[in-house]
Amino acid sequence: MKRTLMTQMLRLLLILASTIVSTITQACTGLQLKAGDDSFINGRTVEFASPIPLSGLVIPRNYAFNGTLPDGTKGLAYKAQFAVIGANAFGEAAILDGLNEKGLASAAFYFPNYATYTEVTPKNKNIALSPTEFPNWILTQFTTVDEVKQNINSVVIVPTSPAGWGLVPPFHYVVYDKTGKSIVIEPINGKLVVNDNPIGVITNSPTFDWHLTNLSNYLNLSPMNAPSKVIDGYKLNSFGQGSGLHGLPGDFSPPSRFVRAAIFSATATPVSNAAKAVYEAFHLLNQFDIPPGAVGSKTNEKVTFDLTLATTVKDPQNINYYFRTYNDQNIKMIALSAFDLNDKELKSIPMTGMQPVKDVSATAQSGLIDAHPQRSEEGS
């Protein structure tokens, strides 16, 4: 009896340990913001424990694709109904994070220990996609979240290991449209489970419905400072700014990042339009930037550390894709309007390079700079 109980406990500990290792080595965070003109933008961080080569990618209309089966043969054949911009990985002709010409956005996020894909059969191989091809299919075929929901069962995701990954990447997926609607799609037990995403936030494991339920643990949090209290005639004051968020989880685990992203996006100071919301999103996503050495794991004596490889923001109103990388914190933009949407070939854009330090010594001027400038409208 004792031995059986001990065995069960050891199995549980191993499962928990593998969950912790997997989740801390792929820690991405996504959120959505609404601007004062009722436009929406969405953004995310990209974290991995090893450098994933990312590139900007432009897909024209009518470009032909084939899904990839685990044995390397072809799955679903389809053509792009809509042009798409975003980022790929390992040079694959598939966008993992991007938006299309109609303002529909989608992205893949790591979902370790929960993602279970559909096994290939003679009946489903012609509608099969790899885990990295699924967002690409969504973006090239649909214009709204409702359309995605209606057609979700017309494909299956199979356990293909894409070139460069060295494994079958365990993903779940977020979809946003320009009206602010959002869903999360999770491959669980071979089926695609769709959850409405009322708060526009996504991280990693466990399942999305668990994360939503977990938010109830933080109903006491507020952006407003805690008021003073008098106990038996003795007045207690908060130590300073931020006391209303005392108890906000600050670690980098997926549940903690989910809570922070939900709080920060819900309480963000409103800005007037999507262009300004882009900058707001980058500021919020700074909260999830993982410094090298802060989040690590050890497997078979090999130690790896997560870091934030890139941060991206998508503007569905103006169809712009913004990004910055670990080595270059300058924000860069890919505008769909700059390309021929009926071109015959893909276009790639480097996302590499080291940010130079700008020397501003030559801008020095005599005297003092006006310390009381008129408040501009830039932040409103």
UniProtKB/TrEMBL annotation:
GO terms for molecular function: choloylglycine hydrolase activity. Residues 28-347 form the Choloylglycine hydrolase/NAAA C-terminal domain. Pfam families: CBAH. Residues 1-27 form the signal peptide. PROSITE patterns: PROKAR_LIPOPROTEIN. CDD domains: Ntn_PVA (cd00542). Its EC number is 3.5.1.24. Keywords: Hydrolase, Signal. Transmembrane segments: none annotated. Belongs to the peptidase C59 family. This is Choloylglycine hydrolase.
